[in-house]
From TrEMBL, chain A:
Gene3D superfamilies reported for this sequence: P-loop containing nucleotide triphosphate hydrolases
Residue span(s) of domain ABC transporter: 2-235
GO molecular function list: ATP binding; ATP hydrolysis activity
Domain of life: Bacteria
Protein name from the UniProt record: NitT/TauT family transport system ATP-binding protein
Pfam families xref list: ABC_tran (PF00005)
SMART domains per record: AAA
Keywords carried by this UniProt record: ATP-binding, Nucleotide-binding, Transport
UniProtKB/TrEMBL annotation, chain B:
Membrane topology (UniProt): Multi-pass membrane protein
Pfam families associated with the record: BPD_transp_1 (PF00528)
Subcellular location: Cell membrane
Gene Ontology CC entries for this record: plasma membrane
Listed name of the protein: ABC-type nitrate/sulfonate/bicarbonate transport system, permease component
Main location: membrane
Residue span, ABC transmembrane type-1 domain: 70-254
Keyword terms: Cell membrane, Membrane, Transmembrane, Transmembrane helix, Transport
Stated family: Belongs to the binding-protein-dependent transport system permease family.
InterPro entries per the UniProt record, alphabetical: MetI-like, MetI-like_sf
An annotated GO BP: transmembrane transport
Transmembrane segments: 77-98, 119-144, 188-211, 232-253
């Protein structure tokens, strides 16, 4: 599970002070699929980097699995927005997926099995011998997801993972993330700027305000667990929920 | 597959053409040096025509002393290069990974680096006399900086997202060096090695010539003392060949080790 308590983050350097996160408080219970939506530049990446232990908070506190984060916490995996740069070009797909396990000292056969299972789960069993740069963007993002699930995390953070892929690939990857979440039972925090995507994917949508960032709305998505690109998106309840999120975003974009 | 085959043959074709052109150019150069002394453009006593140089070269390779000298030169060169490479990589990775140490040593490095190795000749002669050790010091000193500078740049080139990825997956500092920093720096290390190889060859020959440690450089000096002008030229040709071979070897290693790198790989993106 995840807890964010009065998180405040100021970037201070090169003569410029930017308040990236104003005052954020929310928590995500074990096993929940929560989406965070907010306008560009509202501090979503900053929030993830603090949760991942890559960036210290200016004040406030974040906890992963009830432990305050001071360094990258165990049992937490991240899928970065820049998937191309997050995969190592000198390693083949399978080696990329296995690297975090290898670095932990896991035996070759064990990590081989986990990597094979993860690559199968993302539909890339055939590509294990390729280099990442030989794959399309969508496939690269699948590799990054496979690497995250092979790591067997309790918590998975994803930062606008599909912002740079085409619409069809994006729909496929959304369904893939849903199935991964259902199958592996992780706590998932999914960051996006796309309202439809957030409502389609999550059990809950946390809407952030523009800077100085706070939680503008915390919405439960009471759509059925079985989701489908066609039927779910044409569901009246889907339209209603996305309307609510949309209205909220419009409101926070233009503060009175 | 067809496209790949076509591309490969195109690349091979290009390489073939450049090799042919290079050979033609070299042949033209040799021809000019053959003709110039014969028509009296340069004095034939000091600039023997190519054919005569080649004849002396043929005589040289029949002599055991030539091969001993060649092995001496190769040994000094290779040993100096190895020491410089290992020291340059280890110190470069440390400097590149520890900003504090780097800041503390930057000025000293900027002071030491421009000192020409040959300026150290009187010093090493006092220290070690006309020995291989003296020449080795010069070689290592000159080659080390080439490697160091490249490695420091290489370490600085690690992609921030790649670094974050390694941190988020809890790779230990050693695992980060081994799996992220080292592969990122490798192209730089190889460039450093190529630069270091030619500088090391220059200083090996210089050391042998000036200090008198055994090797091709000393043979050049001996030949010059006994007025064997053609032998001097033949030995100079040998040093040139060594340089070319070193370059070919590095390029070969580069293609093998860096097959994943954008400079080496064929950009063929498979569609989704
Ligand atoms: N390393 C940094 N240094 C200074 N400012 C930064 C840095 N990273 C992000 N910012 C600023 O913080 C704000 C939030 O950025 P970010 O977290 O990337 O937003 P988002 O991911 O929601 O688009 C932006 O105004 C951005 O310019
Ligand atoms: Mg972002």
């Amino acid at each position: 599970m995840l807890e964010v308590k009065n998180l405040h983050k100021v970037y201070d350097g090169h003569g410029r002070r930017v308040t990236a996160v104003g005052d954020l408080t929310f928590s995500v219970p074990e096993g929940q699929f929560a989406c965070v939506v907010g306008p560009s530049g509202c501090g979503k990446t900053t929030l993830l980097r603090v949760l991942a232990g890559l960036l210290p908070a200016t004040s406030g506190e974040v906890l992963v699995q009830r432990t305050p984060v001071t360094a990258p916490p165990p049992g937490l995996a991240v899928v970065f927005q820049e998937y191309g740069r997050s995969l190592f070009p000198w390693l083949r797909v399978r080696e990329n997926v296995e690297l975090p396990l290898k670095a932990q000292g896991m035996a070759r056969s064990d990590r081989g099995a986990l990597a094979a299972e993860a690559l199968a789960a993302v539909g890339l069993s055939d590509a294990h011998g390729a280099y990442p740069w030989q794959l399309s963007g969508g496939m690269q993002q699948r590799v990054a997801i496979a690497r995250a699930i092979a790591y067997q995390p309790r918590v998975l953070l994803m930062d606008e993972p599909f912002a740079a892929v085409d619409a069809q690939t994006r729909a496929d990857l959304e369904d893939l993330v849903r199935s991964v979440w259902q199958r592996f039972g992780v706590t998932l925090l999914f960051v996006t700027h796309d309202i439809d995507e957030a409502v389609y994917l999550g059990q809950r949508v946390i809407v952030l305000s523009a800077s100085p960032t706070t939680v503008a709305q915390d919405l439960t998505i009471d759509l059925p667990a079985e989701r489908d690109q066609l039927t779910t998106r044409s569901d009246a309840r889907f339209t209603e929920l996305r309307g609510q999120v949309y209205a909220q975003i419009q409101k926070v974009k233009a503060p009175a | 597959m067809v496209a790949v085959a076509a591309r490969t043959s195109r690349v091979t074709g290009r390489r073939f053409r450049s090799v042919t052109l290079g050979a033609l150019g070299l042949f033209g150069f040799a021809l000019a040096l053959e003709i110039a002394p014969r028509v009296g453009v340069v004095p034939i006593d000091f600039a023997p025509p190519t054919s005569q140089i080649l004849v002396s070269l043929g005589e040289l390779v029949g002599e055991a002393s030539f091969w001993t000298a060649l092995v001496d030169t190769l040994r000094t060169w290779a040993l100096g290069l190895c020491i410089a490479l290992v020291a340059g990589v280890v110190i470069g990775v440390l400097l590149g990974s520890l900003p504090f140490v780097r800041a503390a040593t930057a000025t000293t490095i900027e002071f030491l680096r421009p000192i020409p190795s040959v300026a150290l000749i009187p010093l090493v002669i006092v220290l070690y006399g006309p020995t291989v050790k003296s020449t080795l010091v010069l070689v290592v000193y000159a080659a080390f900086w080439q490697v160091l500078i490249q490695v420091v740049h290489g370490v600085a080139d690690v992609d921030p997202v790649a670094r974050d990825t390694a941190l988020a997956f809890r790779l230990s500092p050693w695992a980060r060096v081994r799996y992220v920093v080292w592969p990122t720096s490798l192209p730089y290390v190889i460039t450093g090695f190529r630069l270091a190889a030619s500088v090391a060859l220059i200083l090996t020959i210089t050391g042998e010539l000036v200090i008198g440690s055994p090797g091709i450089g000393k043979e050049i000096d001996n030949a010059q003392q006994s007025n064997a002008v053609r032998t001097v030229y033949a030995l100079i040709v040998v040093t040139g060949i060594l340089g070319v071979l070193a370059n070919l070897l590095t390029r070969f290693v580069e293609r093998r080790v860096l097959s994943w790198h954008p400079s080496t790989r064929g950009e063929e993106v498979t569609p989704a």
